[in-house]
Structures are given as structure tokens and as C-alpha cells.
Amino acid sequence: MSAAGQDVLLRVEHLTMRFGGLTAIGDLSFTAARNDITAIIGPNGAGKTTVFNCLTGFYKPTEGSVILTHEDGKQFLLERMDDFRISQRARVARTFQNIRLFAGMTVLENLMVAQHNTLMRASGFTVTGIFNSPTYVRANREAVEFSEYWLEKAGLVDRADDPAGELPYGDQRRLEIARAMCTKPVLLCLDEPAAGLNPRESEDLNRLLLDIRKEQEIAILLIEHDMSVVMGISDHIVVLDYGVKISDGSPAEVRNDPAVIRAYLGVEDEEEAEAVVESAVAAAAKKPARTKVAAKKLPARKKGARK
Amino acid sequence: MAIVPKSNDVMTETQPLNIAAIAKDVLFTAILAFLILGPILGLKTFAITGSLALEQRWGMVSVFVAIVAGGRLAYHLLVWNKPQAKPARAISMPTLPVMSFGKYIIPVVLLVAIFLPFLPGVDRRIVDLAILILTYIMLGWGLNIVVGLAGLLDLGYVAFYAVGAYAYALLATIYLPAWFGDGIVPWAFFITLPIAGILAALWGVILGFPVLRLRGDYLAIVTLAFGEIVRVVLINWSDFTGGPAGIGGIPRPSFFGLPFTDGEGGFAAFFGLDFKPIHRIIFLYYVILVLALFTNFVTMRLRRLPVGRAWEALREDEIACRSLGINTTSTKLTAFAIGAMFAGFAGSFFATRQGFVSPESFVFLESFIILAIVVLGGLGSQIGVVIAAIVIIGSFEVFRELNFLKAVMPAGFDPVQYRMLAVGAALVLIMRWKPRGFVTRREPSVILKEKKAIPTDLVAEGHG
Q1: Residue A3 — pLDDT band, cuts 50, 70, 90?
Q2: Which among B309, B450, B452 is the nearest to A112, CB-wise?
Q3: Chain A interface, best mutation among B323, B330, B447, B452, by max A CB count within 10 A
Q4: Domain boundaries in chain A?
Q5: Preferred mutation among B304, B379, B446, B456 to probe A, highest tally of A CBs within 10 A
Q6: Is pTM beyond 0.90 here?
Q7: A160 and B448 in contact by Cβ < 8 A?
Q8: CA B174, B179, B180, B185: dihedral to nearest 10 degrees?
Q9: ipTM confidence score
Q10: CA atoms within 13 A on the CB side of A306
Q11: Cα–Cα nearest to B271, from B256, B286, B285
């Protein structure tokens, strides 16, 4: 299922990011459709997180443009916006590879902070809020209810009043996603949400993601190494290697793309490569998880290129 | 040493003493002490015309070795021998009583504070000390917004205190009488108070802008420099600020237009009381009490508003804040501005109380004391600030009362001179015992079902 012809939410054009002499992303173009899950995969150091940082304003791309179109036709040039405005106006939310929760605040407080801009407006930028104006009291109650809705989705209602730093790892991952959803985004960028999860936690996470996808009008951009997650839930996959797009298409197309298999297996010799590709294609066609096994065997091939 | 009982061994009864092991350990300690102290204390060189002579003081060494060995023995018998019923995490234990105790202590302290001037045995000296402590409590609460909530280390807080004090001093002595005539003077304090707060807040923003991108140590250094710049400007801009001589003759506050003077039209005459100088002191006490409680009330409200939550989130993780659409620039600036505003209020109170301001009052030591109060109380804790202010400011004053020591100690001994030394040592000990301050719990700002305090070891200290 290609994004072409569909309603395009995010259009990345000729995105290039250089750090000094190092080109982390080179001339990357892809699109993400509204209400689709688009996965960005690639070996370690392929530049996936850099793409996220460019989309969410944490890096200013060297070249190229990132255009986000809301349903009402409003367009945002993300590469020109401040990071917090991307979340505030363009409504792009993200999570982080290494979880960034407010550890000393409760789970509920984490979700309330995510609704900062709504509450700030309701509290008259603190001026009327300090006198407990009815508008603020109502907005505050609604914010708590909205948080509770997402706590239920993430299965964290019982832990609402516990400090976020005390949650188990899997719960923290889901809380970070719930927190991102509390900003009411149109695009949710998830940076390796399944990293370090055990199979049960991974299943809880999949359930949350599928739930979000089914019930919310939202597009998801996903970086993930776990191929069972990627193949299981994504509609569209973009494969990066050394910051360059090497494949782009539906899971089935990508799975059978020799370039992808070469990038993951890292074979040098041409003949050998073909042999490996053939067997790998056959294996991958049977069971998607195989690709992951192959990837896991050679994860460090391109390590050290960049952070 | 090997025979020190492991603290996580749960023992309910006293262990039988292992005499041989203790004797061995004490002997070893004595030998170690002798080896260290022998050369240091035992041998002393002194000059006799043209050459060096060596004096041997083995008697003194043996006394010190005996003290060390005796101390070690006492430790064995009294401390390490104690039944250990509590589990290994000893550090978090002392925090619990403070909290449950805190529920009852707050209303009691508040009641005592409200009726303090009328309690039996309370004289002018005690009310004066209470005013001083309340001023520091207010400053501590103000700084708590910047350091405790927003996690921005500010070593130049006294600059805003100075802005408030000079704003009142200049407006009340020169500008208000010049603009509105002398009739305004009794009201000067109440008119100037908000102006002083606004000016200080403005300076908070002025400081905030250049330091927005700084974190941690760098932020601390720049704020320290800012505090010094303000003081140096006050010293050198003589035409405006009076230079090192300061500004004197600052009008004392009136009771809403009624001056505290003897005779016609004064406070005492109006209310049919006998004139007493303490009336003014008591009035000042209530002014600072109201100001301090106002600071506390506003801070507590702000914590429950989105801006307060954003401050705390900023302290926890700035990058996550930005990813959630929080404008960290304006969030930091509001923290600086509101923190500075309360220092401005406190500053103009200081000016009206003293009747005199000079740059001498706004040295780095003041910033340090306020910061020490906040850190010692426990970052972000309101009641912690109260406890720490009473401990620190109170202990300064206690040293003035130790005159009996003069009789015991050698001539020329003045206990007041040792107060900073003793307070410094106390700070080190307290931070060793409770590294996160007196109150090591954070209260959540919003609750779904049940309130649970958050242990501060999870709470970030902020990195600028």
C-alpha cells in the first residue's frame, strides 16, 4: 500500500543533514499518508533518529523541506519552525529512544504537562487561573479526564498517582506514548518504542499502538528494529542505510527488496550476495521474523559512523 | 574494618561482644594513629641561634593515641553494637517522621506566628529576630520558585532584593515627594511595594534573557556575576544611589496613614493607646508575615497551575518539555521574574524596616544564605524553607547569646566571630546526614485517586 494517490500528511523533500563533513542524511524524500503507520527502518547509525530530530525541530536540516498538511489544508514548513512550535501548532508529537519522562512527577502530572498549552490558555496565561476562574477549573477537570482516558488506554490507571520514575520499563514506554498523545497530535513519531521490552510488554505496546491507529485520526511514524512489530503493524516502510533511502514501499515489497537484504546482511561478494538474497527472500517470505534474526546477527556492521 | 557489622544484617538483639576481635581492632587503630601522629606531633623543630633543635613530645602523642583508641573502643561498644532492627536503607528513614509530624506542625507554627507579639515573655528582641527570620523565609520562598521548582541555580538572588530596597529608598525619599508633595510620604510604602516588585521582576527578565541557554555551573557563575554587577553599580553610581554611603532617612511605614509617633495624629493617640515604640515593630512584624504568607500562597497556587507544572517539568527534563510544545524560554523567564518579584517586595520591606540602605547589605553572603536555606530545607519544599531559615538565622543569633563562653575561654575570645565557622560546619554535617535537605518528599500537584508523596531521590535537581 503505497502512499501515492492517498491523502498525504507529511512530505519530506530532499532532506539533507550534515554534521561538519559527515552526511547523516543525504537527499531523503518520502511521504507519509494520513492515518497510516509509516515505519523507518535501517541498520544502526543509518540516520533514522536524525530524521526524527529534523522533523521535530531538534535539528535544523542543512537542506530540503518538510511539509506537513493538516486536514483543513493548513500547511506547515517544519524545517523553519522552533521545536516547541512544531508540537504546539503543527501538532507533531514524539517519543525518545531513551525514555524522557518527568521522573519526579506523578504519572498523571506527566500527562497534565502534555496539555500545557490548552491549560495555559484556559488559565488566562496564569492571570485568571491564579484566582481559580471557572474557565480554568473546568479546563483542569477536562484535562484530568482526558489524562484518565489515556491512562486507561495505556493500562496505567492504577498507577496514576505514582511517580513516573518508579514505573517498570514497559509501563514507562507506554506512558511516554500516552503523554505524546495528550498533546492531541496529528502525527506521532515513535523512536524505537519496543526497544528493551520483554515479549509481554511488547504485546501490550502493540495493543496500544493498534488501538491508537484504530480509534484516533492520526498518522504514526515509527522507528523500530523489532521486525515483528514493523511487519505486523506498518502500512508503509522506508528503509535507510548510511542516511540514504534504499527502499520504500509496502512491507511485502520491502521484505523482498534485494537492496534491503544486502544492507542488513552486509555481504560484499556479488555472487555470494545473490545466493544469500535468494535464501533470505525465501525465508523472509515464510516468516517475517527471520529478517530480524539476520539483522540481529550483524547489528554492529555500521556502528561508530555517527550517534 | 572487617569486624564492623554489616548494616543490612537484620538483628533484633545485641550481638555478643567479640572481645578478641575488638581488642585486635583497637590495637590496630592505636598503631595506625601512632604512625600518623608520631611524626606530626611527636617531633617538633625549633630554632636556637643559628641551628635547629628537635623537641620530642612523646607524652602528647600517647595522649592523642589514647583518645583515638578510646574513641574506636567507644564506637565498638556503643554504636556498632546497637541492635539493628531497621533495614539497610537508613537514609530514607528520618524523612517519614517529618512528614507525619508536618501535618500538625504547620497549623501550630502558623498560630504561633500570628500571635507571637502577644505571647508572654516575648520582648522587642524576639519580635525583631522573628522579623529577620520571616524576611529570610520570604526570600527563601521566592528563590524556591527559581531554584526549587524551575531548577535554575541562581547565585545572584540578592540583586533583586537590592533592586526592591533601592526602589523603595529612592522613590520614598526623593521621587514621590517631588512628584506628589510631602503628603504622600506616609503612604509611600504601600504605593512603592508593587512598583518595587515590578521593577525587580523586570530585572529578573533582564537577567533571564542572557542566561537562557546556560545550564548548571555556567548559569551559576553568570548569576553570581549579575549579583556582583548590581552591587558594584550601586557603589559607583554615586549621583543616583548615594554610593557607598547609601541612602538614609527612609520613611518608616505608617499604619495606613497613621504614623507611629507620640502625640497628636499618631497611631497610639488614634486608638487611645499609650505610646510605645514597640507598636511599630509589631506592625512591621505583621507586614512581613502577610508578605511571606502571600508569597507562600501564590507559590502554592502557581504549582497547581500549568505554569508551575511547566517549571517542574523543566527541572525534570527540558528536551521533553520542548517536545510537548512548552515554550521553555517564556517558562524560564516567568520563573526568574516571579522569583525576583518576591525578592523586590522583601527588599522594599527591608528598606522601610532599616530606614537606611547601602550596598553593604547586598553582598554575596546574603545570596549564599538564602540559597543555603532553600537547599537545606529541601529543594521545592515550602515547609523546609521555614525550618531551615529558623535553624540558620536562629543559630546566627544564638551565638550572640553565648557570652558565658567568654568566661571559660582564653581572653579575646568572642563567640560571635565563630558563628560562620559553626554554621558552615553544621551545614556540612546536615548535608552529610540529609543530602537532599530536611524535607525529602515532593507533593504531587494534581491527584487522581490517592495522594502519595514522591521521594526526592526520583526528583531531578535541574541542570540550569
Answers
A1: very low
A2: B309
A3: B323
A4: 101-183
A5: B446
A6: no
A7: yes
A8: -10
A9: 0.78
A10: 19
A11: B256
